[in-house]
Design brief:
This protein is of the alpha+beta class. The chain has 9 helices and 12 strands. The strands form 4 sheets. It has a 5-stranded antiparallel beta sheet with strand order 6-5-4-3-7. The protein has a 3-stranded antiparallel beta sheet with strand order 8-10-9. Strands 1-2 form a two-stranded antiparallel sheet.
């Protein structure tokens, strides 16, 4: 008598199907819920990043675009005496504004992206079930060590960002940063490049810049100290200086360079050899040195024509003359020679 055993599949397939359905039912949350939540987190973070970047772009453009008062000041107003207001070249100012906008917007966008990425990673790890406590503790220790080692680098970047936001200086400006004095060739978040008068290129870390003197913003002043003799007539000197400065401004080549009529400020000092009379005038940025040289040349010629003597160092030499017989070697007199 033979015993026929049922096929293996007929008995085990229902069990396998039941166990598979039970496993799927038990892991539905892990298979569907967690990926959906992760995808939702990613989508929300991408939307937040897009909104933040758009807001940063609008805010930066609004902050950097000139105000109505500044726009009015940058328009050259003319009076009967020539240009009244003259500011920096518009193309250069616009180029600097665009450079600042791009740099600041890029920095803020990168900061927002990094923050959202870190938040997203933390939320995804939490959904997967990885404990964040040890990771945060390790990240805190690593961040503290990096902070101590790179604190100067952070200071450089923060200082560079503030320099651009406040527009302390830009490419093409003539600045004095301490030992580095010259024309700015590059402004970055970490370094500033300055070309000095001798052609040397200075690389200055922004975190080491403690004070800045900018000779290129808004306007400059040409100051000329003229030395005259003590016996010179000050009224004549004042008249010569004023006429020379007024004649310089009336010339077409200097009409847009001098922002006002040169003014005589008076006697600056009384020296042993003469007096110093100061002449000053507002000029366009970076034009003060050329105006000073031209004024110095014209003032010299005008003072010569007016008969005003420019003092020079005087020295009196006493020459001793012996007596006529010369027997006793006694002094017979002295003659003074002034040079």
């Amino acid at each position: 008598m033979s015993h026929l055993s049922p096929p293996i599949g007929t008995a085990t397939n229902p069990q396998l199907a039941a166990s598979w359905s039970d496993w799927v039912g038990d892991h539905t949350t892990a298979l569907i819920g967690i990926p959906l939540r992760i995808a939702l987190i990613v989508v929300i973070l991408l939307v937040l990043r897009a909104v933040a970047k758009r807001a940063i772009t609008r805010v930066v453009q609004r902050v950097l675009e000139p105000s109505a008062a500044e726009t009015e000041r940058t328009r050259p107003r003319r009076t009967a005496r020539g240009a009244a207001v003259l500011h920096r070249d518009r193309s250069r100012a616009r180029q600097r504004r665009e450079q600042r906008a791009r740099t600041i917007g890029s920095v803020l966008s990168s900061a927002v992206t990094i923050v959202l990425f870190m938040v997203g990673v933390a939320m995804v790890l939490d959904q997967v079930g990885i404990a964040l406590g040890p990771l945060l503790a390790s990240a805190g220790v690593v961040g503290l060590a990096i902070g101590f080692g790179a604190q100067s680098l952070v200071a450089d970047y923060l200082s560079g960002l503030l320099i651009m936001v406040e527009d302390q200086y830009g490419v093409g400006d003539s600045v004095d940063l301490g030992e580095a004095v010259g024309e700015v060739e590059h402004v970055g978040l970490r370094l500033t490049h300055v070309r000095d008068l001798n052609g040397g290129l200075w690389h200055i870390r922004n975190g080491e810049i403690l004070r800045v003197r900018n000779d290129s913003q808004e306007w400059a002043r040409a100051v000329l100290d003229v030395a005259v003799a003590h016996d010179a007539n000050l009224d004549t000197v004042y008249r010569v200086l004023e006429d020379t400065g007024r004649a310089l401004r009336e010339e077409p080549d200097f009409a847009d360079v001098l922002l006002e009529d040169p003014a005589v400020w008076g006697v600056q000092s009384l020296d042993a050899d003469g007096m110093l009379v100061r002449l000053a005038v507002r000029t366009a940025p970076l034009q003060q040195w050329g105006v000073t040289r031209e004024l110095r040349r014209r003032v010299k010629e005008a003072l010569d024509d007016a008969g005003v003597e420019i003092p020079f160092a005087r020295r009196t030499v006493w020459v001793r003359a012996d007596s006529a017989d010369g027997a006793d070697g006694a002094d017979g007199g002295a003659e003074a020679l002034t040079r």
